[in-house]
Structures are given as structure tokens and as C-alpha cells.
Automatic annotation (TrEMBL):
Keywords: Repeat. This is Pentatricopeptide repeat-containing protein. It comes from Brassica carinata (Ethiopian mustard). Residues 29-40 have a biased composition (Low complexity). Gene3D superfamilies: Tetratricopeptide repeat domain. The lineage of its organism: Eukaryota, Viridiplantae, Streptophyta, Embryophyta, Tracheophyta.
């Protein structure tokens, strides 16, 4: 029998053992017809690495796929070793293996062989799969050790595998693990690349972990890892986020001293920093400097300025400036203009920008629609929001989590629980996982409708499914129970927060204080303000106004004014709510003279009285009018009426 025919028969017998009897039988019958003297083997020989390699090199992937369940980690490792010089074939082979069923050494060997490709992306993808699937049983440190071992087995001098591991952790937002791998590299005598360090710095910056970024940057400097243009740009961005704009400019000078020339990203980062703080003249100063260095500003330069100026209602100034330098607004620019107009409540202008955007050839994005829908809900234009949703659906644009959250929150704010829960169900049907924001909105509307039992059930359901409630969710539920006087449940929620290490804020305590005041427990509410201070939470206007309002409703104006004086001593100026609460108390005591004085004080402070103010003053002064009437009768003077 010829060698080729033997190989075919050998392969067929293996495939037959692997369960592919139809294919094997069809090929076997052909073989037997040609060689009727050859007996059919009773037991198929074991699968060998040579057999697998033969199938891989001849690209018979359908056969390989049906053999993978029969391949042991040892056989896979041997095959991978033989494919080191052809990493493209190794990748094709690995793509047909279920990595999760392999042990860690084999998984890491697969990554190591595939990392020899010119592009790092396939190895990075495999590494992510390894980390995600084995996160519970294998630590990232274990993966690091196995990658070092695989690197040794392949006799590779490059540190690319370890650099990829750090990069992978960064992409998965595993901050601590990424930093741990970096220090493990140094500990084992490997020099991390500057680009690897930049991955960590960039992640820390994106997550606003600025203190950690500076500690890590200092270690880079101590380890004599050179910074490049990307490193400096990241650290300038960190300084801008911290509001240290002067130091950011100094960093620009430092990089130039070290021979690293800034690029347009450097200057745009500075412009963004100045613009986000409202320092537009500082941003323009940076633009002048960048132009003197030969860099022409682009849309990334002007869009941050446009964003701030739009919030100030001065977008036209920036648009004119952009036109003068030959820049035409793009879709990002139009979205900024639309968002700014919506935030100011100027929906007519917002929709005009949308029309202009479309005329210029820019299709509105889902972000555009989300912004407009949010603006419509803010202005109570529910029907218009429904029409816009219909337009989105007609265009075949799929709603995302943000759209659903905007809609659900909008309907919840307007008390339409039925519509909000219908959208929640639709969201789930579309395969979009509800977020904390989604459930907070739903809990809020249930509390607003005084359906506290349903709100508690939803809260427990959220926790039971593994979602950790945040401060806003707790506050929403607590406010509901405080509003209905269920203070025991409200305080039990505060204890739960402490157990879960969720720090309460001023909103939390203001809810509790309002609930206690509603129950007439003013001293307990006052003690709660002391607890706030002990926790390092500063009482605000709402805290003091809550107490003032509570005492005033009781008619205890003496205590109400004492709280007002404490409020003034701490630098808080009384608001309309403060004065109205005090006047309400004076009206109960019919203290007209003091009410009149308070009204004059209020006007002198530039606070415009409303209907509630005048009603309280009239009621307070009714006693004075009765005294005046009695005095007129006694003196024989005619009664004066308004």
C-alpha cells in the first residue's frame, strides 16, 4: 500500500473513532474498493501530534474541529511547539479549541506561540479570554508566572508576553492587577516598555485615580524608564483634571527641556483643561502658543471651548472664531450645540441645530436623540418626546441603555410608573441589562406613588441578583420611607449602608431629618445634624431649612430663629424657603410686627417674595388688624378696610 494511501486510511480510522462515521465510512468504502486485500483495523491507533499537524498543515480544519474534544493538553502543547515557526497556523488551531477546558500552562503556551504574529491583537484577545474564563480559579499572578514559564520553554528573549498581560489588564480595567504585573516584571528582572507604563497611566487617568497616577509616574522615574510624548500628554491631562493648570504648563516646559517636542494632542489637552474650568482666555493663550509653534488648531481644539461657551449662551462667538480659521463644525460640534441649548431649556434652537446638522450631511446619532429626548422631558414635553422616539424607531436605530434610562427616568419623574416599567420590560427583551440608574428611577416612582412595599421588593430583587446598590438608590428608597413616616425602615437602611461601606451624604441625613421633623421629633433631628458633623458631612441650606421649617410648623419660632442664627454664623445666606418657613411660624403665633420686619429684611436681601410669603404675612398681621379695629371703636374712628 502506498504511503499516501496509508496516511488516508490512518486519518480515516482516527476520525471514525472520533465519531465521524459517515465521512469515514464513505472514504473507507472507496479505499476498500481500491485495495480489497487490506484488512480493516479492529482498533483505531491513538491520535498523534503528527496526525494533527498533517491535518493543520493541509488546512483540513473541519477534521481538526472534530478531533479537538479528543486532544489532551499534552498533545495540544506538543502540536503548538511544532507550530512556533508558523504562528498563523497556530492561531487557526487555537481558534478551534475551547481554551476554558485546558489547564493554565497550555493556555499560556498557546498565547505565547500566537504572540509571535506581527500583530499583537490575536494574542491579546486570547489572553483576555484566559483571564475572564479562569478568573475564579486562577489569579493574574498565576497567569504571569505561566507566561514567564512559556517564554522560557520557547527560549524567547522578548518581554512582549508580559507587556501584553499588563495591556490586557488595563483593557479589562483591572487596575490593581495591571500595577501588580508591572512590579512583578521589575522583580523578575524584566524591563517594562514605556508603552506598557503608558497603558497603566492612561487607565489611572481615565478612572480619575490621579494620586495613584503620580505614585506610579514617580516609580517610573525612579526606575529610569524614559517618558515619551504619550507619557507627558497623559500626565498633563492628569494635572488638568486636578485643576493644576499652571503646573500643566510647567510640565510642557519640562518635556521640552528633555528634548521631547509637544504635538497637537499636548496643546489640545491644555485647551481642554482651561476650557473645562471656564478659563477661556487661558485656552486662547494656549492656541496662540501652539500656532506660534507651527500647529494649526483643529476641531478637537475648539470643541471644548465651544462646550463651555455654549453653556454660557455665547456659542456664536466661538462659531465665528472657528469660521475665521477655516473650521466647519462637525457632528461633535453640533451635538455640543444641541446639548447646550437643551440644558438652557431652549429646545427651539436645539432642534434648529439638528436640522442644520442634517443639511450639512451629518446624520443625528443616538447621542443626539438622547440629548433631545432628555431636554423634552426636562421641559415637560412628553408628547414631543414620544414623537422623537417614533422617529428613531422608524429610522431603524436601536435604542441603547442610555436611551432607555433617559426614557424611564423621564416617565418616573412625571409619575408614569406604568410606562416606565413597560420600558424596563422592553429593555430586558432587547437584551440590554438595566443599570443602577434604571432601578433607582423605578424605585423613585414607586416611592412617589407611595407603593413602598413594591419599592422594597424591587430593591431586594436588585440586591438578590448581585447588583450592589449605590448611594443614590439608597437615598431614593430612604426618602420614600421618610415621607410616609416609616422611620424604623429608614434608619435600618442607614445601618445597611454602613454594613456595605456606602458612606451617607447630606441628602441621606436631610431625608432622615425631614422624616423626624414630620413626626414632631425635633430634638432627634437636631441630634442628627450633630451626627452629620461627626461623620465629616457638612450640613447645607436644606439641612437648616428642614429644621427651621419643622420648628415653624410647630409654632416654636424661638428655636426656628436660633437655627437661622446658627445658619448665618456658618456663612449660609437665608433663601426664600428660609424666610417662608419663618413667616409660616410667625403666622401661627400671629406675630405681625416681627413678620413685617422679616418681610422688609427679605426684600433688602434681594429675595423676591411669592404668594406663600404674603399669605403668611397677612395671617401674622391679622392680630394687629383686630387690635387696630378695637382701638378704632374705642376712639370712635371709622373702620378702615382694604
Amino acid at each position: 500500500m502506498s504511503t499516501a494511501l496509508f496516511r488516508t486510511s490512518h486519518r480515516i480510522s482516527i476520525l471514525s473513532a472520533a465519531g465521524y462515521t459517515r465521512t469515514a465510512a464513505r472514504l473507507s468504502s472507496h479505499t476498500l474498493t481500491s485495495t480489497t486485500t487490506e484488512p480493516e483495523p479492529s482498533q483505531p491507533p491513538p491520535i498523534s501530534s503528527d496526525t494533527v499537524l498533517d491535518l493543520i498543515r493541509s488546512s483540513q480544519w473541519h477534521f481538526v474541529e472534530h478531533l479537538t474534544c479528543k486532544l489532551t493538553p499534552l498533545l495540544i502543547s506538543t502540536t503548538l511547539f511544532n507550530l512556533v515557526k508558523t504562528p498563523d497556523l497556530a492561531l487557526n488551531f487555537v481558534n478551534r479549541i475551547d481554551l476554558s477546558r485546558l489547564d493554565s500552562p497550555t493556555q499560556c503556551l498557546a498565547v505565547a506561540v500566537v504572540s509571535k504574529l506581527s500583530s499583537p491583537e490575536p494574542a491579546l484577545r486570547l489572553l483576555k479570554e484566559v483571564i475572564i474564563t479562569s478568573r475564579r480559579s486562577v489569579s493574574v499572578r498565576d497567569v504571569f508566572d505561566e507566561l514567564v514559564h512559556a517564554r522560557g520553554r520557547l527560549e524567547t528573549k522578548s518581554t512582549v508576553l508580559l507587556d501584553l498581560l499588563v495591556r490586557c489588564c488595563c483593557q479589562l480595567k483591572m487596575v490593581d492587577e495591571a500595577i501588580e504585573c508591572f512590579y512583578l516584571m521589575k522583580e523578575k528582572g524584566f524591563d517594562p516598555k514605556t508603552e506598557t507604563c503608558n497603558c497603566i497611566l492612561s487607565l489611572l487617568s481615565r478612572l480619575n485615580l490621579t494620586e495613584k497616577a503620580w505614585v506610579f509616574y514617580a516609580d517610573m522615574y525612579r526606575m529610569e524608564i524614559k517618558s515619551n510624548i504619550y507619557t507627558y500628554n497623559i500626565m498633563i491631562n492628569v494635572l488638568c483634571k486636578e485643576g493644576k493648570l499652571k503646573k500643566a504648563k510647567e510640565m510642557l516646559a519640562i518635556m521640552e527641556c528633555f528634548g521631547v517636542k509637544p504635538n497637537i494632542v499636548t496643546y489640545n489637552t491644555l485647551v481642554q483643561g482651561y476650557s473645562s474650568r471656564g478659563r477661556i482666555e487661558g485656552a486662547r493663550m494656549v492656541i496662540r502658543e501652539m500656532r506660534s509653534k507651527g500647529f494649526e488648531p483643529d476641531l478637537q481644539t475648539y470643541n471644548p471651548i465651544l462646550s463651555w461657551m455654549c453653556s454660557e449662551g455665547r456659542a456664536c462667538e466661538v462659531l465665528k472664531e472657528m469660521k475665521e480659521v477655516g473650521l466647519v463644525p462637525d457632528s461633535v460640534s453640533y451635538n455640543i450645540l444641541i446639548r447646550g441649548s437643551c440644558n438652557r431649556g431652549d429646545l427651539q434652537i436645539a432642534f434648529a441645530y439638528k436640522d442644520e446638522m442634517m443639511k450639512k450631511g451629518f446624520a443625528p446619532t443616538l447621542y443626539t436623540y438622547n440629548t433631545l429626548i432628555h431636554g423634552l422631558f426636562m421641559e415637560n414635553k412628553i408628547e414631543a418626546a414620544d414623537i422623537l422616539i417614533k422617529e428613531i424607531r422608524e429610522k431603524g436605530i436601536a435604542l441603547d441603555a442610555v436611551t432607555y434610562n433617559v426614557l424611564i427616568n423621564g416617565y418616573c419623574q412625571h409619575g408614569d410608573a406604568k410606562k416606565a416599567f413597560a420600558l424596563h420590560d422592553e429593555m430586558m427583551t432587547d437584551g440590554i441589562e438595566p443599570t443602577q440608574f434604571t432601578y433607582t428611577s423605578l424605585i423613585y416612582v414607586l416611592c412617589r406613588r407611595r407603593k413602598l412595599r413594591e419599592a422594597d421588593e424591587l430593591f431586594e430583587n436588585v440586591v438578590g441578583r448581585g447588583m450592589k446598590p449605590d448611594l443614590v438608590m439608597y437615598n431614593a428608597l430612604m426618602d420614600g420611607h421618610c415621607s410616609t413616616g416609616n422611620m424604623d425602615r429608614a434608619f435600618s437602611l442607614l445601618k445597611e449602608m454602613d454594613k456595605m461601606r456606602i458612606d451617607p451624604d447630606d441628602v441621606t441625613y436631610n431625608c432622615l431629618m425631614r422624616g423626624l421633623c414630620g413626626e414632631g421629633k425635633f430634638e432627634e433631628a437636631r441630634e442628627l445634624m450633630g451626627e452629620m458633623k461627626r461623620r465629616g458631612i457638612k450640613p447645607d441650606h436644606v439641612s437648616y431649612n428642614t429644621l427651621i421649617s419643622g420648628y415653624s410648623k410647630k409654632g416654636d419660632t424661638k428655636q426656628a430663629f436660633m437655627v437661622r442664627d446658627e445658619m448665618l454664623s456658618l456663612g449660609f445666606n437665608p433663601t426664600l424657603l428660609t424666610y417662608n418657613a419663618l413667616l409660616n411660624g410667625l403666622s401661627k403665633n400671629q406675630d405681625g410686627r416681627l413678620a413685617e420686619e422679616l418681610l422688609m429684611e427679605m426684600k433688602s436681601e434681594g429675595i423676591t417674595p411669592n404668594d406663600s410669603t404674603y399669605c403668611s404675612v397677612v395671617e401674622a398681621m391679622s392680630n394687629l388688624e383686630k387690635d387696630a379695629e378695637m382701638s378704632d371703636v374705642d376712639s370712635g374712628k371709622p373702620k378702615i378696610t382694604c
